[in-house]
Amino acid sequence: MVNRGFPKFGVSQAGAFVAALKNYNLPDFILEIVAKDCDSDLLERGRVDDRLQSMNDAALALLHRVFVGCETDEEGKYAQLRFYAYVSSMYHKCAVAINEPIPGRSGRNHRVQIAVKSSGMYVAVAHNKPVGKPVNRRDAIRFYGAVDDIKRGDHGTQLADAIYGSSVGFRDEAVAELEDLSRSRNAADPENRLDFKAANFENNIYSITKC
User: Fold this and answer.
1) Which residue of 28, 119, 132, 171 sits 20 to 30 Å from the alpha carbon of 13, by its own alpha carbon?
2) Which pLDDT tens digit goes with each residue over 147-193?
3) What predicted TM-score, i.e. pTM, was given to this entire model?
4) In terms of Cα–Cα distance, which of 63, 33, 65, 69 is closest to 49?
């Protein structure tokens, strides 16, 4: 399949984009999201560079801005794509679902930004704050409450990890709150262990802070 966008900015530039992007091990679902948003073709299977070359110029340019340039946008879309890829990289051979509604014990559906499944069971959920002010204590408590409700429900029996990401930083009180909640839960109820992690975006990468 020929990249329909090559004539617009030239084969050499498209080739440079592909050469850079193929080193990022981008998950399939990221390519699918970007292809859809950019109305691009995308090979269903094949080598990473072949799949990238099948995408149009808009899709390649967007991927390059997000993952190579680590650029930001007002809506926080670029940050979300980076966070999705980061979480996916933590769980090899697992299925990833975006904006997944998961019912909790209360009967309420919690829409999770990214959910990770292994053998059809949820093993991790994650949320990222891409724009705005740093994550505060109230944000942390709200996240914990939603994940705890999911864990106690029928779909949370295998849930083990909950990751709160932020592209705008964390207040110390928020990280401390997640630490306290995670520690108290694990000590009080080992059979229902649930590890909460805070992932901060600094120096163009996400990394787990103390939690």
Assistant:
1) 28
2) 999 999 999 999 999 999 999 999 999 999 999 888 887 656 667 78
3) 0.88
4) 63
Q: Give the whole-angstrom CA distance, residue 143 versus residue 42.
A: 35
DSSP one-letter code for 100: E
φ, ψ (nearest 5 deg) of residue 96: -120, 135
Q: Quote the CA–CA distance of 96 and 204 in Å, as a whole number.
A: 23
Q: What backbone torsions phi and psi does residue 84 show, to the nearest 5 degrees?
A: -60, -45
Percent helix / strand / coil, the chain, rounded to 5: 45, 25, 30
Q: Please list the ranges in the chain whose pLDDT falls under 50.
A: 1-7
3-state SS track over 1-12: CCCCCHHHHCHH
Q: Which residues contact 16 (CB under 8 A, 6 or more apart)?
A: none
